[in-house]
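Problem: given the chain below (170 residues), write out its structure.
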Amino acid sequence: MEAECDGKGKQMDSMIWMSGNVGGDVEFRTVRDGLVYADFRLGCTPRYWRDGEWVDAAMTWIPVNCNQALAENIRASLRKGDAVVVVGRLRTSRWNDSEGTTHERLQIEASIVGHDLSRGVARFQRTSRVQAVDDAGKETGSRTAEVADGSAGPDEGAETGATGRVPAAA
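Solution.
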């Protein structure tokens, strides 16, 4: 895997794509200021044709994490065992244990996640980004509203005119 260069010799992010299966339940959490995160493990099992039959190689597990709209869409879309394709930045997570030993783990900061349509079918449902506002009209961030057949899904009727803004959740 090679890192991309910006033309001036400076190294940029290492982008990667992987296909595999969601290895367990997606962990979803909301932290300060309403930031949302989703994490799951991606299991990849390479298959090889050897001596007239398919043979599975050792499974590779890699953590995948994402935030905001992608995290919200993943929560609504992915289940354990789903075949997916993940595109994102390859990162190394480093930490020290209680004995002072340094550990490293590769992970993907996902920018795109989708069902692997070579292994099944899916139905796409568009979401829209709407700006959330508090009671005083101050913007508090954005959130995702489902849109199906031209309706605003769970936020239907919550928009305040043509501004695309909805009241912030209590």
